[in-house]
Design goal:
Blueprint lengths: L1 E6 L2 E4 L4 E9 L5 E8 L6 E6 L5 E3 L7 E5 L4 E6 L8 E9 L4 E4 L3 E6 L1
Parallel strand pairs: 2-11
Antiparallel strand pairs: 1-3, 3-8, 4-5, 4-9, 5-6, 7-8, 9-10, 9-11
Length: 116
Amino acid sequence: QVQLVESGGGLVQAGGSLRVSCAASGRTNSSYIIRWYRQPPGKERELVALISKTGTTFYGSSVEGRFTISRDNAKITSLQMTSLKPEDTAVYYCNAHQIEPPRDFWGQGTQVTVSS
């Protein structure tokens, strides 16, 4: 079992920056892929970025070049968001994906609001 807690959300003006973090506890010694998703109001959840255990990263097209995912240490993964736009407004969720056997763990989410 892995427990995930997101933090760092808030209100920021367009063009600003914000950093959200995901703290993992429990069994964190497995080879998890850490993924950040977001769910804008009235829309479906979408993948924002992911980082593998070896550090390979992937970004959604809408955030590439503006967002950076990183593993701060063995238990904390962060998402640095820059040049924020109103359309980045969403609840941001941290996900730990266990490859074998396949299993997903989710955090409770953190609200990010970008004002125009």
